[in-house]
Design brief:
about 675 residues; alpha+beta; hpI Integrase, Chain A; five-stranded mixed sheet; flat; disordered N terminus; disordered C terminus
């Protein structure tokens, strides 16, 4: 009988040794305290101090793809051996280097590998991976996740930067995912869904105006805090968590010549470098400064308590005038004063503050909220333990990205300060989280919101609500409307890549059309003159619609160019003029827009000089000069008319001006529609 012995190649043996070394090194340099390597659920809350969210625990589940458990908090089947040790080592390695807040994608990527290896009937080990394995893993990601690209990029990094780089596997040499990035579907307010009640990516202008009015008229503390957040959100395009992590010294100044401008120091959440975002005008500067100063003042008692707990971690904070109560039996009225509560604590609610039972009795009237024969005394130790135990695990670190402390943070505020049913506890610090801000802005329509408290709603009685992220989308849209460079928009927004800019661009018709149709009585309306006005009047007459509706149709899609405003619909045809905007009937300018005026002056200047040179060339006998003059003389005349309009003091600002097309070549959406109607009539 012949026995066949399968010898492993030297490369395979070396790969397994490299794998063992990789796992061993990460075991020795284990970075998650209070966890055991052999456990399949790790609590990494104390490690991830870069999130300011509510005290939610952050856990990692090394769960197998075969796990059929319904509960998200339990594991019935852990990741297969020996892949699980590799997964743990990878997680440690990546988190040590990058400290990712979106850490779950690492696990999802390795689960995809597990799935593929099981499908191939291979041992579930990273040394068995080949190109077919990775193709199967991609198939799994596409079928399971709405956003497979982000997980696939994590898998790509694991393969190239760990498996290949550390020579853990000899079957693959380089790998790039074939899953491409797909931008989320954009939401324009012109879509029917908005009318049906769904939310656009940008807030409605009436909602913005309502918030502005509340900010300036309301003295209600929750209203002021929420609108201060909105003021900072409107200062620059930022994520809600970035605003909530601002420090109390976030205001800075910079000088340019004799001019001093104000800025805010930001720390982008997703890997961007720290930067200062400066006020775009004086109004923004004043608004943001007032918001920061208000938050500093309202949160001062809570921050003072936070400073105390940093230096005295196991000792209850007492205002100086109450220090005599330390380690003494105390009444519930004294407890209320220690916490900074306006009203006393009812005896039936003593358990809410950690008290088990009274330990004594006093008849001292000065220690009571109301006159009474006597009141109970409670243990000082119990309230001390109760309050200190409520501080989050990461305290006193508020922001792990900058190692910022609680007492240095702008949005550390008195506990319950946004609660509609509970007294604020001035001397108990609490971090603000984005969920509570969004609930105040209306994400909880069944509860009291900043809009419902102030009786703000749409004319059709529908409730108003916005989300914190909509302001980021709005400012990016406005930046696109001003034709800022994509690099500058990404920098202003705190992004590392310009690729995501388009996700935040919802320009289309909203920037101009909505100002005209929805807010004509509240802001200075956009006016029209020239060809555009006549076209809209004709459309309205023929179709029995209002002038405003006709204008909205004719404007179609709006594009901002270096020359002015372009209304051509590129979904129908390419541009028929190819940068010859001055001769186009789909080109408009806006009176009062300095950029439009400068561009018109420049075009007139260069065309006048060029025509002068061409006429001199014609006199000198140069062939072709006449043809050039015939083509460009009409261009000059049109730009002269545009320039004269923009410099006419009798024309009110915000008036749009359009010249008729210089040819019979019309390709607008409305023009095509008219052509179809004419054919049908004939």
């Amino acid at each position: 009988m012949t026995t066949i012995i399968n010898f492993k190649s030297a490369q395979d043996t070396e790969s397994k040794k490299n794998l063992e070394v990789f796992i061993s090194n990460n075991k020795k340099n284990f970075i998650f305290p209070n966890n055991d390597w052999n456990d399949n659920i790790w609590n990494i809350t104390s490690f991830l101090t870069d999130k300011i969210n509510d005290n939610k625990s952050k856990k990692v589940y090394f769960r197998s793809v075969t796990d059929d458990s319904i509960s998200k908090n339990k594991i019935n089947a852990s990741m297969s051996k020996p892949l699980i040790d590799f997964a743990k080592a990878v997680f440690c390695q990546i988190m040590r280097e990058k400290k990712l807040s979106e850490y779950k994608r690492i696990i999802y990527a390795i689960q995809a590998l597990e799935f593929a290896l099981i499908e191939q009937n291979n041992p579930v080990c990273v040394s068995e991976i080949n190109s077919d394995t990775l193709n199967l893993a991609e198939t799994y990601l596409r079928s399971k996740y709405k956003d497979p690209w982000s997980i696939a990029k994590n898998l790509e990094s694991i393969v190239n930067n760990i498996i290949i780089k550390k020579q853990i596997n000899t079957n693959i040499y380089n790998w790039s995912t074939t899953i491409t990035y797909t931008a989320p579907a954009r939401s324009d307010r012109t879509q029917k869904e908005h009318n049906d009640g769904s939310k656009s990516k940008i807030p409605h202008l009436e909602e913005i105006l309502a918030l502005a009015e509340i900010h300036h008229s309301s003295n209600h503390i929750p209203d002021k805090i929420v609108t201060c957040f909105v003021a900072l959100a409107m200062f620059a395009p930022s994520r809600g968590s970035e605003i909530l992590s601002l420090s109390i010294d976030c205001i800075t100044k910079a000088s340019q010549g004799d001019i001093e401008i104000m800025g805010l120091k930001w720390r982008p959440l997703k890997g961007g470098d720290p930067l200062t975002k400066f006020a775009v005008n004086k109004e923004y500067e004043e608004l943001a400064t007032d918001a920061v100063n208000y938050l500093i003042e309202i949160g001062k008692p809570a921050r003072e308590a936070a400073r105390w707990y940093k230096n005295n971690p196991n000792i209850l904070y007492l205002p100086s005038h109450l220090e005599y109560l330390r380690n003494q039996p105390i009444t519930l009225w004294e407890v209320a004063k220690i916490l900074g509560k306006e009203n006393t604590i009812k005896a039936c609610h003593a358990y809410r503050y950690g008290f088990s039972k009274p330990i004594g009795w006093t008849t001292d009237k000065s220690r009571m909220f109301v006159k009474s024969p006597g009141v109970n005394l409670y243990s000082f130790d119990e309230i001390e333990h109760f309050i200190i135990s409520k501080l989050p695990q990461t305290f006193p670190i508020f922001d792990g990205r900058s190692q910022q402390y609680w007492h240095e943070s702008l949005f550390v505020l008195p506990k319950n300060i946004l609660s509609p049913t509970a007294d604020s506890l001035l001397n108990v610090p609490e971090s603000m989280d984005i969920d509570r801000i969004n609930k105040q802005l209306g994400s909880n329509p069944d509860g009291r919101t900043i809009f419902s408290r102030n009786d703000k709603k749409f004319p059709n009685e529908k409730p108003m609500y916005v989300t914190s992220h909509q302001f980021r989308h709005l400012l990016n849209t406005l930046a696109q409307a001003k034709a800022l460079s994509q690099e500058l928009i990404a920098f202003w927004s705190g992004r590392k890549s310009v690729k995501q800019n388009d996700v935040y661009n919802h320009l289309s018709q909203e920037a101009i059309i909505e100002a005209f149709t929805d807010l004509e009585n509240q802001v200075e309306a956009i006016k029209q003159t020239g060809s555009l006005e006549k076209k809209a009047q004709t459309i309205a007459k023929i179709n029995s619609i209002t002038y405003e509706e006709a204008l909205k149709i004719e404007l179609g899609s709006i594009h901002i160019t270096q020359y002015g405003i372009c209304r051509h619909d590129y979904s129908l045809t390419p541009c028929p003029k190819d940068k010859d905007c001055g001769n186009c009937g789909e080109f408009s300018v806006m009176k009062g827009n300095e950029k439009h005026r400068r561009e018109a002056s420049y075009q007139v200047q260069i065309l006048e000089k060029a025509l002068l040179d061409a006429k001199e060339a014609e006199q000198d006998g140069h062939t072709g000069a006449r043809r050039w003059i015939d083509v460009n003389e009409p261009k000059l005349e049109r730009w002269q008319k545009i320039k004269a309009f923009l410099e006419d003091d009798s024309v009110p600002n915000n008036t749009m001006f359009t010249l008729a097309d210089s040819s019979d070549y019309h390709q607008t959406k409305v023009g095509l529609a008219f052509a179809v109607r004419m054919l049908e009539q004939n």
